[in-house]
Structure formats: structure tokens, C-alpha cells
Specification:
Helix content: 25-40%
Number of strands: 5
Structural class: alpha+beta
Radius of gyration: 17 Å
Strand content: 15-25%
Largest sheet: 3 strands, antiparallel
Strand order of the largest sheet: 3-4-5
Shape: globular
Distance between the termini: 21 Å
Number of helices: 3
Order of helices and strands: EEEHHEEH
Length: 114
């Protein structure tokens, strides 16, 4: 079983102190049933509605874009992630595709091809 859990670590970056703690969104890779890349889940859809209401000058101040969004579907809940670094997003998507054995975002959908 592969599980990513953020443990409590104190560190300082650029003069700012951070404390990492165990996330309530931690889960085992085996528990992920689906993934959606882009701003298509309900949470990110609401952000899209907000973006559409902005003036042109305000759009450039948005904290992230739809291609920074990744939604992981678990039994009974979803985990929404924003990963701003494009290379890191590619790494996690490739890892999830391989781990979930998927070709279209749903767990084990690639089994027939493999």
C-alpha cells in the first residue's frame, strides 16, 4: 500500500516559518477511484463562474488557472488539489495513471489494454 501522509515539520523558507501537519485529505493510492484534470469539478466550476464575472484587468490577478486543478475521487468524497508547477503536475498525473491503471481517469480502466 502506498500512502502519502504529511508529517509535522517546522522549516523556514525565505524568512517565513512554516509548520507542516498531517492533512485531513491524506489517502492511500488504492482508495482513489477516479481523477479529473482541469477545472471540471464542482469546486472549480464555481471558480469559473467567478472568473466570468470579473473585469478584464482582474483576470490577470487570479491565484491559479484551470490547468492547475486536479480532483481525486474517493468513496464518498473528493479531494481538490491546485498544483501550480506544470512539471510537478505532469509527474503526479503520470504517477496516478500508472498506479490507477487508467486510460480515461477511472481506476482499472486500462486493464483490457494491459
Amino acid at each position: 500500500m502506498i500512502e502519502y501522509v504529511f508529517t509535522e515539520i517546522d522549516e523556514e523558507v525565505d524568512g517565513v516559518e512554516f509548520t507542516e501537519k498531517t492533512s485531513s485529505a491524506s489517502c492511500a493510492i488504492e482508495d482513489i477511484l477516479s481523477m479529473t484534470f482541469g477545472g471540471f469539478s464542482a469546486r472549480f466550476w464555481m471558480l469559473r463562474k467567478h472568473i466570468n464575472s470579473l473585469e478584464d484587468s482582474e483576470i490577470h490577478q487570479m491565484p491559479y488557472y484551470s490547468w492547475n486543478c486536479l480532483t481525486l475521487g474517493l468513496q464518498g468524497r473528493e479531494i481538490d488539489l491546485v498544483i501550480r508547477n506544470e512539471q510537478e503536475m505532469q509527474y503526479i498525473i503520470k504517477f496516478l495513471i500508472y498506479s490507477m491503471r487508467t486510460v480515461e481517469g477511472k481506476k482499472n480502466s486500462g486493464d483490457k489494454l494491459l
